[in-house]
Structure formats: structure tokens, C-alpha cells
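User: I'm curious whether this sequence folds into something compact or stays loose and floppy. Could you predict its structure so I can see for myself?
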Amino acid sequence: MPYAENSVARRLMENDPEALGLVIRWISTALASPRFWLLRGEWPDLLQDVLARVVESLRSERFDASRDLRVYVQGIARFACLQALGDRSESVNRANPGDLPETGLPDPVKRLIDLQLVRRVLDLASEDCRELFRSYYFDGLSYEEIAVSLGIPVGTVKSRLFRCLESASQAFT
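Assistant: Here's the prediction. I'll summarize afterward.
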């Protein structure tokens, strides 16, 4: 086995409960991202699917042990969520083209709940995060446009926005 003796990857392959718990927490963090809240009902299935993908990847030695396993696991989780969102939107479009999935709530009630959640996120966010959220989500600026306006590299904009979203997600858990 190419993984270091006491590494999380090796311990996971040896069915260590602590390593399994750690990997499950990493997966759960990615699943609970605000971006994937639509998938709440599918989280248990997605967790199992991602865990199976991670174990299979480790067994087939596709994971480079010199890299960060947490980042790798969360990348697999985000990819699985994006696939699930794509599958969901395709089935909605086939069933009712042009319609959104039924939430069970009247449209004005759903909008009010969404508005309250957005206000809460913005209230809890730092001033820098509020500025990024406004620029990206409300003003519709691209990463490049935000980078130019702030005078920072595009990668920095992406990582700051990701960290802001992660902190907003943690505020609700």
C-alpha cells in the first residue's frame, strides 16, 4: 500500500473508525455547503456514494499521497453534488420544461424565506465577504471583473469567495 503508515488514507483502508469519522466529517462539510442545500434530502445517499468513490480511488491508487487528502475528498464530494444537481435539473426539465421543482411552499413564502436567509448570511459575514457576495451574486460580476476592481489576482478572488461561503455555511451548522 503506497500510503504512509499512520496516514488517514492508510487508516481508512484498514477500517479505522476514527479515520472513517474524519473522512465523513470532510464529506459532510462539502455537502452542507449552501450551494448544495437543494440536495438536503439526498445527503445520506450522497455521503455513501462519495465514501464509496473515495475508498475505490484509494484502492486503485489514484490518490497522490503527497497531496492533501481532505481537499481530495471534498473535491470528490463537490463533484458528486454537482452531478446530482445536473441530474435533478435534467429530470425537472423533462417533466415540466421551464418549471422549477415543486417545493411545497407558495412562491411568496419561499421568496420570503430565501430573503431572510440571505439577510442572515450577510449580517454574519465580514465586510470583505459582504463586498464579495454583492459583487459576485447581486451585481453579477465575473471573477476577473472583481479581481480588477479590487486589484488582486483572480485566484485570490476565488479562494476568498470560497472561504466566505464556507464561513457562512459554518454559521448555520
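Summary: The first helix runs from residue 8 to 13. The helical segments are 8-13, 17-31, 43-59, 69-95, 107-124, 127-138, 143-150, 154-171.
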